[in-house]
Amino acid sequence: MSLTGLCVVAALLHLLLLRPTARGWRMRPPNRPPEAPLPPLTVVTAARNEESHLPAWWAALQAQDLAPRAVVVADDRSTDGTAALLRRFQAEDPRLRVVSIPENEAPSPIAANASPDAHPRETGRFFLFCLVKKYRKNIYKTKKNRRIAPKKHALSQAIAAAPTDNLALTDADCRPQTGWLRAVAGAFAGGADLVLGYSPYRPTGRRMLDALIAYETFHAAFLYLGDALRGRAWMGVGRNLAYRRSWFEAQGGFDRHAGRLSGDDDLLVAWAPAGTRVAVLLEPLSWVWSEPPAGWRAWWRQKRRHVSASGAYPPGLKLRLGALGLTQVVVWGLGLWALGQALVQMNLPVRSILIFVCYLKGKHTLMAPAGGLLTQGRGLIRLAGAELLLALYHAVVVPTGWLRVAHWK
Predict the structure, then answer these.
(1) pLDDT digits over 11-42, tens only?
(2) Which residues contact 241 (CB under 8 A, 6 or more apart)?
C-alpha cells in the first residue's frame, strides 16, 4: 500500500472512531428546569500556594446565584500567603471551612484493594519502569508501603469535612460562571450521581499557545462530553466536576488509582461503577473558566501530568484513544510527506490536497454540533492549523507524559 493509500485509511478510521461521539451530541436532551427542590451543595477545592488566584476564585463563588451550604478548602502545605488569605475569607464568611495539611503530614496509606496498575512492580510494565526510573519522582511505593498522591490526599480530607452529600469540585485558579452551582444543584435534583461540565481556558496572549490550548480543550470536551451524552462517560475535568460523597465512598474514593499523581477526575469517572447516573452541563452559565499555563514550559509540564493518568484507563478506552491519536498523527505525517514529495517533483499535489480537504470537511461536520454549542465554530483553514498542532501534541507530548511525571505545584 502506498503512503497516500495508508493516509486515506488512517483518515477514514479516525472519522469512523469519532462517529459514535458525534451521535451523542445529537442525542443531547433539552434543558429543563428541575421539578424537585434544589439540594444543598458544598464546594470542594484543594489549594497549594494559590495566594495570587484565591481572591478571584472567592469573588466568583460569592457571585453565584445559588449560595452553597459550605465551601471546604484543603490548604495543602502552602508556603505562601494562602493560609492567611483563607483566614481572612473565613472572617468574612463563616461558611468557609479550611482543612490544613502541614508539610510533615504523610499521605494516608492506600487501601488494600488498590489497583495494581498504580504499582509498576506488580505489572508487566516493571521493566519499562526500571528504564525510566531516574526520570520519575518518588510517587510510587512498594506493595508494603503504598501511598496516595498529594492532591488526592488533600481532596479526600476536604471531602470528608464537607457537611453535605452533594459536592461541587473546582480548582483555586478557576472562575465559575454565576449559574454554575444552580446548574449543578439542578442535576443533583434530577437524580444524578455524577455531573460533568465544560471548563475552557482564558487566553494567555500568546497566539499559537492560545490556539493549541483552546482546540485541545474543545477536542477533549467533544470526546468525553459526547460519550457521556450517549451513556458512555469515561472522563471529567476537576475544574468543573460534581458528585455525591456517598457515590465517591461507595467505590472506595481514589483507592484504585491513589498512587498516580493525576487522575483525581478522569480516572474516577473512567472506573465509575455500572449504574452511575451521569448528567452533563452544557449551558454557558455552567462553565468554569480556568487560568491557563503561563507559557510553553508550564503547559508542557501540565499536559505531561495529565497524560500520565491515561496508563490506568480501562483497556478498551486506551485502545480507542490510542487509535484516535495515532490515526491523526499518521494522517498529518504521511499527508505532509506526500505533499512535500509532490512539490519537490514539481507536481501539483492534487491527491494530498484532496485527502486533507475531505478529512477536514468530515471532521468539521462531525464536530459541528459541539462546536456551535461550545462556541468553537471555525472554518476549514483555522481547523487545519488547529488539527496540525493537535497532531504534534499527540506525537510529542503524549509519549513523554507516559515516561515522566511532574509534581503537583
Answers:
(1) 999 999 999 999 999 888 776 777 678 999 99
(2) 168, 169, 170, 195, 196, 197, 265
Residue 300 sits at φ, ψ, to 5 deg, of: -60, -45
SS (H, E, C) the chain: CCHHHHHHHHHHHHHHHHHHHHHHHHCCCCCCCCCCCCCCCEEEEEECCCCCCHHHHHHHHHCCCCCCCEEEEEEECCCCCHHHHHHHHHHHCCCEEEEEECCCCCCCCCCCCCCHHHCHHHCCCHHHHHHCHHHCCCCCCCHHHCCCCHHHHHHHHHHHHCCCCEEEECCCCEEECCCHHHHHHHHHHCCCCEEECCCCECCCCCHHHHHHHHHHHHHHHHHHHHHHHCCCCCCCCCCCEEEEHHHHHHCCCCHHHCCCCCCCCHHHHHCCCCCCCEEECCCHHHCEEECCCCCHHHHHHHHHHHHHHHHHCCHHHHHHHHHHHHHHHHHHHHHHHHHHHHHHCCCCCHHHHHHHHHHHHHHHHHHHHHHHHCCCCCCHHHHHHHHHHHHHHHHHHHHHHHHCCCCCC
Cα separation, 353 vs 241, whole angstroms: 41
CA distance 287 to 196: 10
- The stretch 300-310 carries a mean pLDDT of 82
CA 252 to chain centroid, in Å, comes to 21
Residue 89 class from Cβ within 10 Å (0-12 exposed, 13-18 middle, 19+ buried)? buried
Which residue in the block uniquely carries the three cell numbers 495543602? 76
Q: For residue range 147-166, what is the model confidence (pLDDT) as tens digits?
A: 788 899 999 999 999 999 99
CA distance 296 to 199: 20
Q: Which three cell numbers stand for residue 131?
A: 528504564
